[in-house]
Amino acid sequence: MYETILYKLQDGVLTLAFHRPDVLNAYNQQMGDELADALQRADTDDAVRTVVLTGTGRAFCVGQDLADRADLGAGTDLSASVRERYNPLIVRLQMMRKPIIAAVNGVAAGAGMSFALACDLRIASDRAKFTLAFSKIGLVPDSGASYFLPRLVGTGKAMELALTGEVISAQEAQAIGMVNRVVAAEELESVVEELATRLAKGPTFALGLTKRSIYHGSESDLFSALETEAKYQGLAGRSEDFHEGVQAFFAKRTPEFRGR
Ligand code: T3D
């Protein structure tokens, strides 16, 4: 059904993989269209309870396919491309009512790094590396990098990575708080599968609100955060999963959440 991404749904976990391995999964128009379609389906499909974003071959994603930019002369306006092909994807990842894990299997560059930053959790292979490559080619950070990176690593480090375009290892990325965990390359798939399956068995409705709450809390004052928590708790408290969670607690058994 798709050509530039892989789509695999198993046990509530949807794995989406950038799949243009010959060009390090460089992002082109078709990939953008296919990813947008897949993410929209994922959001509305109740069978999908966690999403994993990864890449095939030795890269996660190296951002814009520069082969499609090689013939553009000075004076080209890229703002429409960013608004139409990149920004909606970032919004879709952020607004997804299910947890999204970036399984960063290899190099993540430019908007490819931004895609990883826009996910909720990042597990990296010890072979992964990261670069905000934009400054190396005379562009500026896009696809949410200017928003997510300072929130994850602080303004000073974000500035350094953005201005220099320095390539950093997975271990450095973990040390500065950019990735949650680094694992041996051969263990990435099983570690991510274990985490994704655990999340997929969770109270999906509440996890979706949890996502929103944490993102809201990171950019609001205390009073607004408290009010949002109260509002979301009102919604979560009405869910079937809350009822099941409390029943299971007193029965001393594992809850069987249905995600609603
Ligand atoms: O245009 C718009 O609409 C605006 C939006 C822009 C969003 C963006 O993402 S702009 C940023 C685009 N990405 C980059 O600038 C990254 C460029 N690539 C690199 O810096 C390096 O290739 C990497 C650090 C990612 C990996 O380095 P390394 O040493 O592991 O591999 P390599 O040898 O540099 O690359 C391997 C091949 O992949 C090579 O092709 P070849 O020589 O084997 O035929 C290289 O040209 C190709 N490749 C790497 N990145 C891209 C690419 N081909 C097309 N587009 C790429 N982005």
TrEMBL record:
CDD domains: crotonase-like
One protein family per Pfam: ECH_1
InterPro entries according to UniProt: ClpP/crotonase-like_dom_sf, Enoyl-CoA_hyd/isom_CS, Enoyl-CoA_hydra/iso, Enoyl-CoA_hydra_C, Reg_chr_condens
Family stated for the protein in its record: Belongs to the enoyl-CoA hydratase/isomerase family.
Protein name per the record: Enoyl-CoA hydratase-related protein
Species annotation: Tumebacillus lipolyticus
